[in-house]
Amino acid sequence: MLTTFVASPARAVGRVSPGRVGAVINRNVGALRSGPSYWVVLLSGFFEPVLYLLSIGVGVGALVGDITVGGRSMSYAAFVAPAMLAVSAMTGVLAETTFNFFHKFKYAKTFEAVLATPVRPIELAVGELVWAVVRGAVYTAAFLVVMVAMGLTTPGGALAAFPASVLVGLAFGAVGMAISTLMRGWQDFDLMSVGQFALFLFSGTFSPVQDYPLVMEVLIQVTPLYHAVELVRGLCLGVVGLGSLGHAAYLAAMVVGGLWLASRRLTRMLCV
Amino acid sequence: MTAGTLHPTLAVLNRQLTLYRRLWQASIFSSFVLPVLFLISIGIGVGRYVGSVEGVDYLSWIVPGVLASTAFQIALGESTYAVLGDFKYVRAYHAMRATPVRPVDMVCGHLLYLVLRAEAAVLAFLVVVVFFGGLHSPWSLATPVVCGLLIAATAAPVTAFAARIDHDSYFSLLFRLVMIPSTLFAGVFFPVEQLPAVVRPLAYASPMWHGVEMCRAATLGRATAWPLAVHVGYLLVWAVGGVALAVLAFRRRLED
Amino acid sequence: MADQPLIFARDLVKRFGDFTAVDGIDLEVAPGEAFGFLGPNGAGKSSTMRMIGCVSVPTSGELRILGMDPVRDGTAIRARLGVCPQLDNLDPDLTVRENLTTYARYFGLSRSESHRRADELLEFVRLSDRAKGKVEPLSGGMKRRLTIARALVNEPDLVLLDEPTTGLDPQARHLLWERLFRLKQRGTTLVLTTHYMDEAEQLCDRLVVMDGGKIIAEGSPRSLIETYSTAEVVELRFPDGLDFNADYAAKLAGVGERIDPLPDRVLVYADDGDAALAEVHRRGLTPSTVLVRRSTLEDVFLQLTGRTLVD
What does the sequence similarity comment in the record state about its family (chain B) (predicted)? Predict the structure, then answer.
């Protein structure tokens, strides 16, 4: 009896063990291999942003011609491509950390089983996040290759944009995980996907935010995807400044805040 | 034994509507708010840079596309998890199987429900579009009929597919290989003539393109790309063939 | 018409590929009867039930339900059947009451009639206070009662119950039996499958024992026990019995009518259990536990197949 009382608060503090985080990731790799046709699904996940790029960037781009933003002229595809990269970094990771994460701790009771072992909630959260980001990074890397091949960015731009897209993944993954610990049921996910879709449409993805009325422009500048798009677009186009640092700082704050809230909520929900 | 006063197909529709009473608030976003947001972002936001397409402003040009794609997505989306779930987890179709309801009633009741549900979204969208000045012809009133046909042509074969598979990961494939490419390349956002000649037949093969083409002809008051009978006939083939396949699939799955 | 059996089967066969689930059975169920299929999992009970429910097409043989052909008149037959499946298939997104009203509409009942029957049946299965609630929070026993209520919504001539109490706790089972017994008293014809002997003894006027797709015995519970077993059974457990029950059985030869060594115990079949036990002690055997009891259907089954029923 005494040991349980001593042991449970001790689990909430202390160092994060890389080994245990690795074990959490390993479970996901195993689940991946066992799922039917899962790799086909993974592969098609990469095509989604490419299809958007071809349809809106190239197809609609042919109707648009060149676009001038902040005094620089570029093809519409070159304007849209970095935004699609940021969006794909966001959606891939969010799908893993919200939908799948919620399913695992609410229904599959996977986490209950994991936390009955020496693995601690923070390690579980970090493990799940790293897994989601690694998956997302594979998509974004492939997308960057496509962009370079289509002449939408330089190899140097792509190299610079890759770590930024990983940061975007971490930021949305951490916040997504925190959100899914607050979800009451699947109906909340409908709300979230509406919000996600609104971000996708209005974060300077398809047209510059400067076009919007001032109130909307300011409102958009508070939301996260705007910062992700601006950071990635600046790096792809080779326009980097103090603003880029600001965007990066915003995303870093999301990582820290999201992780903190997620592991706190998980501890409270699962270690009682 | 009271004589049957309600046709079994309508009894199946009755179940779907009873369920829908609990879902409509959530679905109002996906079936109505999202298309309007899409219209604002692409139609107005990007439209500013596009200027005009085929002689009309870009917003007016994509309105019929977004309209048809709304109907298409509801039809496709609602015939996947819902159908598989009613076989695999809820076993609602097994419950119906023990009553005088026949597989053909199950399929038709489901399709009838989808038509009603998607038409509600179509009508709401049309009303909003009037305020955007996106309709240019009284023929616009024919778009709900076109959408009804498109819904049947899409939902019926997808229902057959959902009744055949055993794992929902196939739906991700369906969404990514059929739904998203159809939405993006079948004439919703830019004319299919812009596509490379090699892939153009894929767009023509998609029921979506025929729906978009007819809706666009209606809202802009012009002729369709191909003879109207071809477009209608093509969608009818998908609808009737889909129903036949779905009834077969239901019968087989309920036999086990 | 009155004498016509509700279910009539001759040489009924159901095959799935190479596997023969039902291997040529003959059946007759009369109106007002409570008829049971007893047997272990895989005996062919559920396959038979599905053919009777007109959900599965017989491979060969003759089958008539309510005097009609299940293949040709499936819809007309199903209109007069009530089916309680082995797996609950209640609609989790509908309320308890809506589950009944929606189902009633499948039979073509009017809205007002379906509401009237729903309320009446909720009363009957004692779920009136849960009418407006969801299905999910109901206990297993409540869900099963709701499924039975649903099966009664069309006032069926014949009710099919596939393992009605499997997975329920003892209280829930007894409540369910009580409700089914009441149904039986009203004259409703019940056909049920079970692998519980006590359930068959409680509910069935007549039953068949199935094994390997065949009917291996038929009769009332009492007559089956009388035919295939003795009035009493003595159960003996020996401290080292796990390995030596066969040896003990040899030493018990001649005690009672028959000796059956099981892996964990030795059964002695005798019409007078106490006399048999006295003989056991007289032979100097010292079992660690002794139980003298009445014969049950389990003993019938053991005698017929040489194995225990639940495996």
Answer: Belongs to the ABC-2 integral membrane protein family.
The whole-model pTM stands at 0.83
- Pair C14, C44 in one domain: yes
For residues C287 and C211, membership in a common domain is answered with no
Angle between helices A155-182 and A224-237 (to 10 degrees): 170
Q: What is the DSSP letter of C95?
A: B
pLDDT for the residue numbered C197 = 79
CB neighbour class for B85 (10 Å; exposed up to 12, middle 13-18, buried from 19): middle
Which residues of chain A have a CB within 8 Å of the CB of B172?
41, 44
Model pLDDT for residues A192-220, shown as the tens digit of each residue? 888 898 999 999 999 999 888 999 999 99
Q: Is residue C203 a part of any domain in this protein?
A: yes
Neighbours of C, requiring at least 3 CB pairs below 8 Å, are: B
The set of residues, in sequence order, having a beta carbon less than 8 Å from that of C310 and lying 6+ positions away, is C40, C195
Residues in B touching C151 (Cβ below 8 Å): 98
Q: How many domains does chain A have?
A: 1
CB-nearest to B100 from C79, C92, C113 is C79
- How many domains does the structure of chain C reveal? 2
Residue with tokens 């648009």: A64
A41 touches chain B (CB under 8 A): yes
What is the three-state SS of B32-101?
Answer: HHHHHHHHHHHHHHHHHHHCEECCEEHHHHHHHHHHHHHHHHHHHHCCCHHHHHHHHCCCHHHHHHCCCC
CB-based contact A60 B38, cutoff 8 Å = no
C194 SS3 class = strand
Indicate yes or no: CB of B189 within 8 angstroms of CB of A76: no
Full residue range of the structural domain in which residue C38 is found:
7-220
Is C55 within 8 Å of B255 when comparing Cβ atoms?
yes
- At residue B156, the pLDDT reads 97
Q: Does A40 touch chain B (CB under 8 A)?
A: yes
Q: Phi-psi region for residue A169, left (φ > 0), alpha (ψ -120 to 50) or beta?
A: alpha
Residue C17 lies in a domain: yes
The ipTM of this complex is 0.87
What confidence score (pLDDT) does residue A1 get?
31
**Non-local CB neighbours of A46 within 8 Å, separated by 6+ positions:** A138, A139, A142, A143
In a domain, A110, yes or no: yes
Residue-wise pLDDT for A89-103, tens only, equals: 998 888 888 877 777
If interface means Cβ-Cβ distance under 8 Å, which residues of chain B face chain A?
26-27, 29-30, 33-34, 37-38, 40-42, 45-46, 48-51, 53, 58, 167, 169-170, 172-173, 176-177, 180-181, 184-185, 189-190, 194-195
Structural domain contains residue A230 = yes
Tokens of B152: 């049947």
Which residue positions in chain C have pLDDT lower than 70? 1-3, 241, 307-311
Q: Where are the alpha helices (DSSP H) in C4-64?
A: 45-52
Q: Which two tokens stand for residue A178?
A: 């925190």
Q: Name residues 82-121 of chain C within 8 A of B (Cβ).
A: 83, 85, 87-94, 98, 102-103, 105-110, 113
Residue C162 sits in the same domain as residue C141:
yes
> Which value, in Å, is the radius of gyration of the alpha carbons in chain A?
20
